[in-house]
Amino acid sequence: MPATSPKTVTAAPPAPAEPGLRTGSLGTADIAFFVVSAAAPLTVMAGVAPLAIALGGIGAPAGYLLAGLTLAVFAIGFTAMSRHVTGGGAFYAYITQGLGRPAGIGAALLAMIGYNGMEIGVYGLLGSATQDTVHALFGADIPWLPVSLIGLAVIWYGGFRSIDFGAKLLGVLLVAETGILVLLAAGVLLKGGAHGLSLASFAPGNVLVPGTAAVLAFAFAAFTGFESTVIYRREARDPDRTVPRATYIAVAFLGLFYAFTVWIAIQSFGDARVVKEAGSNPADLFFTAITTFVGGWAADVMHVLIVTSVIASLLAFHNAINRYGLALADEGVLPRSFGRIHPRHGSPYMAGLAQSALGAVVVLVFWAAGLDPYAQLLLWVNTPGMLGLMALQLLAAIAVPFFFRRITHQEGVLRTVVAPVAATLLLGAAIALVISHIDLFTGASPLANAVMVAVAPAVFVLGFPLAHRLKRTRPEVYEQFGQS
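== APC family permease ==
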C-alpha cells in the first residue's frame, strides 16, 4: 500500500485589526494648539474684551490673570488624576471614578450638551462675523445661512481627516490670529501708547472695584474648553507628560496673553479715555486701535483673521465632541456605529458625521424661525454650553480628593486635597459670578435666562434615573462605565 503524504494544514490568515485612533500622533504643542484654538483668542479679545473694559474699567486685565490662576489651581489636581485615569472619557470618567457611576453618567450627558452647545452656537458667530468682514472690506451684504452651512462642511472635513492634519491646520490659524494681536502690541509699545505706557491697570484701587465681578465672569468664559487636553490622551505621545504640560501651557498662555492684550488695548487709548470708547463702540475698539498704531491694512487683516479664528475654534470643539462620542460608543452607551474609526485617517468619522448633522439641524431651525445668528443662535446655544463645561470643571475638582482616597498612590496632599478643594471653592464662585451676570452674556429676557441657567443642572440630574435604568436593563454596561 503506497504511503500517503500528510495533509498540509494551512493556517487561516489573521483577522484584520480593527482601525483605531492614531496613537502617538500628538505632542505637547499639538494638544496646546487644540485647546488654545478652542478659546479663539482673537475673537474673545476683539469681541468681548471691550465689554470687560467698559464694565470693569482699566483694571480689567487683572481679571484675566485671576481667572488664569484659578484654573491653574484646578489643573494641579486635574492633571494628577490624569495619570491614573487613562481612558478617553475625560471629564465623565474622572467624575465617575471619584463620585460614582450615576454622577458620571450625568456628567457624560452634560459633556455632550456642553461641548455641542459651545460648538453649534459658534456657527451663528461664523455667519455674522463673515457678514461683518465682507461688509467692512467690500461694502457688500451677504446672507449668513450659506456661510454657516459651508462652515459645517469644512469643519466636518477637518474632523474626518487625521488628527495630525487638524493639529497642523490649527497651528497655522492660531499663529495667524495671535500674530495680528502681537502686531498691535508692537505698534502700541513702539509708539508709547496714546499718552505713555501706564501700569495703573494692576493697581489695587483699579482692580478692587464693583465692575471686577463682571470682568471675572467674562474672563472665566474666555477659558472655556482648556480642559480638553485629556480628551487626546490616547493620541498623545508620552501622555503622562504631554497632557499635563499642554494643560499648564494652555492655561498660562491664555491667562498671560489675555491680560497683556487687554492692557495693550487700554494703552492704545489711554487710561482716561478707554472706558468711554469701549462703552460707546465696543465692536470697533480693537480695529480703531490697530488702524491708529499699525495701519488700515492691518485692520482689514484682523477682520479676515476673526473669521479664521472662529473656524479654528469650531474645529477644536468638533474634534473634542467626536472623541467624547467615540468614548461613549466604546462604553456601550451610544450606538456602536458612533465608535467607528476611519481605516485611513484614524478619525472617529461616524461620531463626526452625527455631530455635523446635529449642527446643521440646529442652524436650520434658527434660520427657519427668523432668529439672529449672533443674538440668538450664538448666545442662546453657547451660554448653556459654557455653563455646562464650567459645571463639569467644578464636578471634576470635587471628584479628585474622593478618587485619591480610594486608591493607593504616591501623589502629595497638595495635589490630591489642597488644590482640588481650593479649586472647588474658586470655581463655585466663578459659576456664581457668571450666573449673576448672565444678562451680559445673552441680552435675553429673565425667563429665557432662567431656562438657559437651568439646562446644565437639569441635564446632570437626568443622568441619575438613566443610570438606574442602565443598571437594571444593561448591568454589564453599567458596571464597566467610566472604568477604562
